[in-house]
Amino acid sequence: MGVLKKFEQRLEGLVNGTFAKVFKSEVQPVEIAGALQRECDNNATIWNRDRTVVPNDFIVELSTPDYERLSPYSGQLGEELAGMVREYAKQQRYTFMGSIKVHLEKAEDLDTGLYRVRSRTLASSSSHPGPPQGPAASPSGYGYPPAAGAGAPPMPSAPPPGRPGGYGHPHSAESPRPPAAAPSSGTTRHWVEINGTRHQISRSTLVLGRSTEADVRIDDPGVSRRHCEIRTGTPPTIQDLGSTNGIVVDGQHTTRATLRDGSRIVVGSTTVIYRQAEG
After folding, report:
1. Tens-place pLDDT, residues 226-277
2. Closest CA to 229 of 172, 274, 167
3. Beta partners for 106?
4. How far apart, in whole angstroms, are the C-alpha atoms of residue 164 and residue 176?
5. Residue 230's closest CA among 192, 174, 262?
6. pTM of the model
7. Cβ contacts of 14 within 8 Å, gap of 6 or more
């Protein structure tokens, strides 16, 4: 079972009273969990062949309505999210410089349903030479190296070449470049799910739109005739085709984004779930 699915099931076990309200939020906790995984992947720094360091201190910026819904449960939710990051890091063989923390903050410039994730590496004051705790993070948008004398080699002074120095505004035209995908031992199947219907992606591209000429037609007045295109490359991506209302991928407005199994794409008022599987 995947890390995100386990996380979602743990939260479902808490939906008696408090967390029932959280799940009515425009931003779902499992979406934040997926974003934290991507933040680790996008900021992973290889120190040597046995050690890949990722961030351990995360800030999730939310719109005012979403923050007000989630903040009463921020302590418990933060602990669950930190546990999810720790489990994902173990699976990916990442390491940390210190304890994992996840904080929620309000961002006035974000609309309901959108969020932003920032991260940094913070070395524990009590850390000493020896194996790190788990996932360790490379510096990201507002990150900085661990303090001197923390018992670890110095962090790089700048992000790796070619990687943007943080997420920036959610309407940014580019998403952070993902890590290289591991080679697959078999054929990968791709499909999308729209309103419970599965649409197989049998070619290298799939155009979504309101026109009958689109590969998958979406009957939604908020969707342009040729709205966006999914490309099944390595990694798979989605590209806006100059639509009127744009696309939202995993809670962030963008014109291009990398997709992973379970990515949520919103076009107009329609949600499209991207799926992929080996075999």
Report:
1. 999 999 988 999 999 999 889 999 988 999 999 999 999 999 989 999 999 8
2. 274
3. 62
4. 6
5. 192
6. 0.45
7. 76
